[in-house]
Amino acid sequence: xxxxxxxxxxxxxxxxxxxxxxxxxxxxxxxxxxxxxxxxxxxxxxxxxxxxxxxxxxxxxxxxxxxxxxxxxxxxxxxxxxxxxxxxxxxxxxxxxxxxxxxxxxxxxxxxxxxxxxxxxxxxxxxxxxxxxxxxxxxxxxxxxxxxxxxxxxxxxxxxxxxxxxxxxxxxxx
Length: 174
Prior knowledge:
about 10% helix, 3-stranded antiparallel sheet, 1 helix
């Protein structure tokens, strides 16, 4: 009877959904299952870093959550909006762009970033990034960087879209 109870308990445990098996945002990974068994976290392989902090094709990516908002990132992370900086070439004035009486040089699908360049809002990507206060909070090959420049901005808070959020996140050290 004891053996039957043990087998029944083991079978019940095997059928329970896996919980708690999630890597933190920013953790090293090779595939998305390294980040979460449930699939809500993915392994971003766009910037592969070795244990020594060197960017190489054989390095590891980082765990993230794509398509986030400020309310959807776990406690160790913040939601950032990343614009493709390779194509930032048209100068604009963030103080006057899209304002009454202002000069509008950005196209209708672009926004004027704080550094004074038009960026394509349609191709911007949001993702949860590990929050930090200094470089040592980030893994090798990453630096602690303030949002608000270089194409990396705090994703707007849907509850308070006009509030400017200031924080730092771990970003690849290019």
